[in-house]
Design brief:
3 strands, elongated, mainly alpha, 2 domains, Double Stranded RNA Binding Domain
Length: about 220
């Protein structure tokens, strides 16, 4: 446990909370203790959501509600939580039943993602929201940078144009619908039209950025990732 606490950067006052967070239901059932990490996982999911939501709300004032939701989903999805757990090597500390052990439970994405949430809840219950926030942001900050970098590097306008060009009678137009803020901190809102219908709206610090976000929203509407 001491080794894991070092990896977490947090020392528990109540060690039983950490043990509980690492106890998979398969182990609890075999030991007939009935105490697994499922309740902690439930709480951890909510703690994670509020920490991430609070951070991106305060640090991305240019993003509309839809993009905030998309960004949060990318940061707290199973794939992301699995990667966070791998960095902590949580798998080697899990208490698993014999069957789950044989089935490779220590490397199972869903189990590791759930364990991350359970450990987060344990930190929250033991030390409060600030240690929990510090723990989460160690991983989310890096993931956030990668996520936003991908968004900014991808040319959504070109991708949208290539789709629309398959139907010669269709046309796409970007129209600036709002401009606000002082000169040093402008906020632009752009609507993208398919013929006469709005299919996406983007907000950015430049017109080009707003157009890209508008095109990205339009692609999502079409079921494109």
């Amino acid at each position: 446990m001491h080794e894991l606490e070092n990896a977490l950067g947090y020392k528990f006052n109540n060690k039983r909370l950490l043990k509980n967070a690492l106890t998979h239901s398969s182990f609890a059932n075999e030991c007939k203790s009935g105490i697994s990490n499922e309740r902690l996982e439930f709480l951890g999911d909510s703690v994670l959501s509020i920490i991430v939501s609070d951070y991106i709300f305060k640090n991305f004032p240019d993003l509309p509600e839809g993009e905030l939701t998309r960004l949060r989903s990318a940061l707290v999805c199973e794939k992301a939580l699995f990667s966070y757990s791998k960095k902590l090597e949580l798998g080697k500390y899990l208490l698993l039943g014999k069957g789950e052990e044989k089935n490779g439970g220590r490397e199972t994405s869903s189990i590791l993602a759930d364990a991350f949430e359970a450990v987060l809840a344990a930190i929250y219950l033991d030390g409060g929201i600030e240690p929990a926030r510090t723990h989460v942001m160690r991983f989310v900050s890096a993931e956030l940078k990668n996520n936003r970098k991908k968004d900014l590097q991808k040319d959504y306008k070109t991708e949208l144009q290539e789709i629309i060009q398959k139907n010669p009678e269709e046309s796409v137009t970007y129209i600036l619908s709002d401009e606000s803020g002082p000169d040093h901190d402008k906020r632009f809102t752009v609507d993208v039209y398919l013929n006469s219908n709005i299919i996406g709206t983007g907000v950015g610090k430049t017109k080009k950025q707003a157009e890209q976000f508008a095109a990205m929203q339009a692609l999502k509407l079409m079921g494109k990732e």
